[in-house]
Design brief:
single chain; mainly alpha; Arc Repressor Mutant, subunit A; 59% helix; 0% strand
């Protein structure tokens, strides 16, 4: 599913996702990159963090409170799997794609599952 999504095979990725959901799998939201996962405000805040602005400077430039900036920075840190503002700034500035948050699914066809082998049935 993730591979299909990354290759641009949206229809195949959506079909795989539907099949997995029907089988009972509950995924985290599919993200192709941390940049895609950021809200508009998180993206703007991450951009300003990458320019070296402080929470106070970001709050003043966006006309929001420092608390709001802190929340948006925390959200961006989580989505980029970054441990610090410096790491967030580096990842945002480089546009790095992180696969840490992507889920890899290895699905075993029903005919090959442990239960079907015991029962002897294919379907």
């Amino acid at each position: 599913m993730v591979l299909a999504h990354r290759c641009g095979a949206a229809a195949l990725a959506e079909r795989a996702r539907g099949e997995l959901l029907a089988a009972g799998w509950r995924p985290d939201p599919l993200r192709s990159s941390p940049l895609d996962a950021l809200s508009a405000t998180e993206r703007r805040v991450a951009e300003l963090v990458s320019k070296g602005l402080s929470h106070r400077d970001i709050a003043q430039s966006l006309f929001v409170t420092e608390h709001t900036v802190a929340e948006r920075v925390a959200g961006a840190l989580e989505k980029f799997h970054a441990g610090s503002r410096e790491e967030l700034a580096a990842r945002y500035a480089s546009g790095a794609r992180s696969d840490e948050g992507a889920q890899v699914v290895v699905a075993t066809p029903l005919c090959c599952s442990e239960n079907s082998r015991r029962s002897g049935s294919v379907w």
